[in-house]
Amino acid sequence: MRSHVNTLEQISNKQFSRRGFVAIAGTAVLALSACGSPTGDPSTGDSAKLTIGILAAPRSLDPAQLDGGTQSYVWGAIYDTLVYYDNAGKLQPNAAESWEYSDDARTLTFTLRKGMKFSTGAPVTADAVVANLKRNKATPGQQQSKMSAVDSVEAPDANTVVVRFSTPDQSFIYNMALEAGVIADPATVDESRTPTNPVGSGPYVLDTSATVNGSSYVLKRRDDYWNADAYPFATITVRVIADQAATMNALRSGEIDASVVPASQVDSFSPTEFNVVSNSASSAGYLNLADREGTRLKPLGDVRVRQAINMAFDREEIVDKLLAGAGSPTNQQFGRAGEAYDPELERLYEYNPQQAKKLLADAGYPNGFSVNMPSTPMSLPFQPTISQALGDIGIRVSWDPAPAQNATASVAEGKYPMYFFLVGNDVAPRELQRQFHSSSQNPFNWSSPEFERLEKEAHAETDPDRRAEIFKELNAYVVEQALFAPIFFLHSTMVTTKDVKFLGDGTNGFPSIRTFGVAGG
């Protein structure tokens, strides 16, 4: 049987350079790297400085247009969110000191903490939170789909926000810990300054004299922030770094503080000189078989074709040779640590090219078919393997270049019926919302009566055990219908200098400045 997996060394000599692989490895596991070691008193961090490197600059700092990923190092410092994920991935109070759902899960009440201020000194009130949520719902952009179930938002008093839903939405509270839950100053948010220099409620403000938008963002800690002691770095610089290979070299030489390191390079970092923290299953790599009705590519409308694609990949060999063992094979779209994951589903699609060919023939495609997919920074390291695996069953792939800044837009507009994607694992309600209600993951607006029934039941269920059962049933439907072709869960390893403490354990894959502390602090 012919192997269709190329080692990293083979790949680097083919369609792209090793630089491409290292860059995408950083993207896949939400990589960060720091340029310039922390300074100041390590016991207090009162003058400590940290620079974090990211692959791409924030597209916008306007709350309605915020993206996730490593861009959150910038906006997550400028804006408070209603709640937050702690380093174990649990929701914790933040701007909201408490929250409570009604018995029917259709009303959510937040109680805000008192004494919060925007960076201008203006008070953060319930009216301000209401204005932000209403703006997200009314403004086309990244947050609008996350507000689709919101029927109304009101502030009965200065410290209470009441959200009412037209139908229960279990993902909403989790979204309030991320970009959809940020609190901007409603008095200035519609001004021209907001996309590059917003007025926020968070622990840091932009130092505009030192910031170069698109290149380097310098953040100064606010002395008047309500929880300033939780942030040990007085100054954080977020720098756009295009070459992650150079970042690895800088980490070895002591010029930077921290980075996610590819598995093949971990052994080069001595534990006596660096802190090494390994995290499992931080993100997932998969083919999104998005055109499930076959509107742009007719074959994808047949479930047998989608199942054939799932049988085309030798997932164990991909993990072993392409990921250097730093991952695990999977048939599932939902994260392994979440309530939807079911180990039994891993048996559904074994590597079987002959059976895949038979399914294609049964569907009316004995000679296969051709497809164009976008070549993005995410797909580059895996393109030879994908092309060969699909080619072995008769599916001919052509790759269209899509620059990093256009990677998401190229799939969100529905130009491509299928494409490779990498995304961080999350809680099941947010994974459900992201995979089926965002333009980048469901550009053809696919749905089905059975899917909608299961989704509605999952959102309406308030008992955790019963909800987990429904999510597993929904996951089984997704896998059996082959809506995606999941390939692997990607593990990650964070390496820091001895001056920096990494506080995460991999449970929470959301990039946050909260995951770093000063060693000894």
From TrEMBL:
Subcellular compartments: Cell membrane
Span of domain Solute-binding protein family: 90-429
A Pfam short name: SBP_bac_5
Membrane topology listed for this record: Lipid-anchor
PANTHER family associated with the record: PERIPLASMIC BINDING COMPONENT OF ABC TRANSPORTER, PERIPLASMIC OLIGOPEPTIDE-BINDING PROTEIN-RELATED
Phylogenetic classification of the source organism: Bacteria, Bacillati, Actinomycetota, Actinomycetes, Pseudonocardiales
Protein name: ABC transporter substrate-binding protein
Record has Methyltransferase as a keyword: no
Keywords: Signal, Transport
Family: Belongs to the bacterial solute-binding protein 5 family.
Primary location class: membrane
Keyword field contains Ion transport: no
Superkingdom of origin: Bacteria
Provenance organism: Prauserella endophytica
